[in-house]
Amino acid sequence: MIWRFGLFDSTFAPLATTHWALLVALVFPLLLGVLGALFPPKRAFPVALASLPVLASGVMLLSAFDQSGLLSWQWEIAGLILSLRLNGLSVLLLLTTQCIGVAAALYTPGYLRLSETGPLARWLWPLMGVVLSALSLIWLATDLLTLYIALELMGLAAVGMLMLSGKAPALLAGMRYLLLALVGSLTYLLGVALILGQWGRLDLQGLAEVIEPGPVAWFAAALIGAGLALKAALFPLHAWLTPVHENAWTPVSALHAGLVIKASLFMLLQLWSILLPDTFYAPRIIAWLGLLAIVWGGLLAWRTDSLKTLVASSTVAQLGYLMVAFPLLLGPDIAPLPRALAWEGFWLQLMGHAFAKAAMFMAAGNLILATGEHTLKGLAGTSRRLPLSLLVFGIASITLMGLPPSSGFTAKWMLLEAMIITQQWWAVAALLTGTLLTAAYVFRMFRYSFDETAPRHRYQPLAPGMDLIAMLLALTAFALGLLAHFPLELMHGGSP
Q1: What's the pLDDT tens digit per position in 70-88?
Q2: How many CA atoms lie within 13 A of 222 on its CB side?
Q3: Which of 113, 166, 185, 431 is the most exposed place for a label (fewest CB within 10 A)?
Q4: Closest to 424 (Cα-Cα) out of 327, 330, 348
Q5: Cβ partners under 8 Å of residue 242, min gap 6
Q6: Where are the alpha helices (DSSP H) in 73-214?
């Protein structure tokens, strides 16, 4: 095995501490899963203890990048080149993954103590560890083989987590998700096979140098795009998403909606920037589908009577905001200023949504767990006994609606500014429409919750810390808007 350092214009000499931090970031979530499986699954202390090195590794990698700039690693194994890269964007996504992953892990013991989970609960920990390690690898990988391996590990572990309840609806939804995920993987592999057959390499840096626009690149981009869009639940390939979350455990939904579907979107944007540089039609098709996603997802959330369906359907709409930005990121004849605004707004929106959506799923899970009710009407009057859970839901909703000074507001403001500069008025209308629809279904939920004439519920007390963990995630999404200059400065120049 050959170790090389200094690719992608990196000037930083390798340090042992940086290598150890990278190893911990990629491998230690698996150890967290092992510890969770060895100890009783409802004990929080082993999980908290194992989470400390994971968070420490992210801080160390952030410090290394802040001091020395771009870092990269490369191995040559049996003629294949495997490479990793740490830039500003990957640092931010890695830290986001670690924070949400640790929060979900700390939330899980309390949830398991109050839920009827059965003997399969012990398997949640190793599966969660695989998901977090695979996500970390996706943010760092810069070759198609490593990306595929990480994507498959993440997808299979996510399917396993979603089916752990063992109930018939969960198994049916999970099997449907598994079959569609396999279809997406095969479609992605066909695109990779075309690339390998035509240009004979899998590393993204080399492909960026040799790929030329033409039918092969377009067809490969279409196959890869279809496969990743199916895995990311992009409209209109989103039908599997709501049934899966309807039957999943709360920490699983928080991880999946907050992080898992974002990985496929990250890969799609990264690969299309190489295969379809400055193309006109493909980004606009995604953007028009994003417009439909905003309207359709918002209407589904507004019309449903199920709290989990409301939160899951809002994910479809929120992904639409990111899809609408594709012409600004990949389209031709976009000036540097609007492209930079769209780039920073896109990733700030993605990170803010990740924290807010994880918090919203936890708040919704707390409401359902405490009352035993799954419908909005059944949750009427919960403001009397569960004000903190409703407060978490409200703070997360502020980010999703894009109200100031949340990260959703800052991100949408940057996207709107880029759209106005480039005179994409239909995209401006889409973002404003989505904000109104988000407000409509959020306030509909609160209208029931604050109904003082509703009969009183018999409440099950929540475990200590369940609301606090969700609150920390919601406040992080909120604070990203106030402190947006820190992540924006870090990701400056971090475009794939």
Answers
A1: 777 777 776 677 788 888 8
A2: 8
A3: 166
A4: 327
A5: 300, 309, 312, 313
A6: 88-114, 124-140, 144-162, 168-199, 204-210
